[in-house]
Amino acid sequence: MWKGRFKVETSNLVQKYGESISFDWRLYPYDIQGSIAHATALQAAGILTKAELLAIRKGLKAIQNEIESGEFKFRTSLEDIHMNIESALTEKIGDAGAKLHTARSRNDQVALDVRLYCRAEANAIHQRLVNLQDALLTLAKKNPEAVIPGYTHLQRGQPVLFAHHLLAYLEMLERDIGRLRDAYQRINHMPLGSGALAGSTIPLNRKLVADLLDFPKITDNSMDAVSDRDFIAELLFVISMIGIHLSRLSEDVILWASAEFNFIELSDAHTTGSSLMPQKKNPDVAELTRGKSGRLVGNLMSLLTTLKGLPMTYNRDLQEDKEPLFDSIETIKMALEVFAEMMAEAKVKAENTAEATADPFLLATDLADYLVLKGVPFRQAHEVIGQLTAYSLSEGIPFQELTDEEWEQFSPAFEKDVRKVLDVGTALKGRKAVGAPSPANVKRQVAKWEKRLENPVGLV
Length: 460
Ligand code: ARG
Hints:
Layout: H1 12-18, H2 21-24, H3 28-44, H4 50-69, H5 81-93, H6 95-99, H7 106-142, E1 147-152, E2 155-161, H8 162-187, E3 189-190, H9 206-212, E4 217-218, H10 222-227, H11 230-256, E5 264-265, H12 284-307, H13 322-344, E6 347-348, H14 350-357, H15 364-373, H16 378-395, H17 404-410, H18 418-421, H19 424-429, H20 439-454
Parallel strand pairs: 3-4
Antiparallel strand pairs: 1-2, 5-6
Helix pairs in contact: 3-4, 3-7, 3-9, 4-5, 7-8, 7-13, 7-20, 8-11, 8-20, 11-12, 11-13, 12-13, 15-16
Bound molecules: arginine.
The site of arginine has 9 residues, from helix 7.
């Protein structure tokens, strides 16, 4: 396609080194869609006749069918998806095909294709995020009363509702959706017409192309447009963040499914056995997701490092944007799908979570608050409950079993009603501030999410 000035064939090794068709074939629907829009603009500018435009459209659609049915022969010698399709078109329809690349470079072509791809995939990721939120909400609703220790430093802290713990992930995923929506705005700019770097002397109606492809905005600087990959970096960041949230959820699931915690049972369908230890039931899905999240971050770093230090404008380095992008998109879509399936079917062992939550030390903060309400300054109250905890531990007497005299020994502010504090239900009910896990609050939050997930707003 560019052989005019060359006397010798490209070496086989260079072809093999430089080809991208083995991965950028994924762009074929966008390349075809973009070419049809471009041809329409060429016809409007008088470069193509109506008949030529029709032939191009028909030829490209036939090529799309061939690709989809597996008949199409991708050729490494034609380097990338753009040249594979253009060459097949010209073979099919002759001269009209050879006119298609007028006023276009692969530089603006690939920028367009990747933007169209990112736009479609951002929508696909959005859908899967909502589905996972839905699955987590279902699990929360199946266990509305289950209590679980809330942890800091992986040490038992204070009691919470299990549903509150799960809803925390809905918040994280909602922020991911917000970030996706934000990234989408900058993906959604139409770069075609920027040519190799300086547009073209052939006046094309870029607005027409943007309208045909449903872009609300066209790029304003041709040099920027052919070398901008910010939108990919942003998308890879959003995907990394989703991956990190899934990785944290994975860690919870792995802990909960262990014999030590024994808080949940995953379905057989979402666990694996050991080839050696017959008793094992392993949470591989969660482990794989925790592992894959590392790759997602790696892909982001890979692209950022590729972009750093590139002179204006297009450089072939930019071909290296694709494998990390495709890998991250495919990985996150699968992870979100499999997690939704697994979480919807997880069984919560509410007796075990309740037993762990019955640990009286989880109410130590509530005891301090009790003293505060009796007028003791918090720092002193904290000290008193600390001493009480040490006493309870060394004597082996749980808070509930301390005598009136023992309580009084630690602070005269303690009265008989202190025992009422030592109840998980009371502790939860008292946590009424916005965002805190009182059962009434959690119920309202569940209703909020139900409503929101019923009619999720799309990315635009
Ligand atoms: N396969 C190339 C890429 O992904 C397409 C653009 C090629 N442009 C060029 N000037 N060689 O970046």
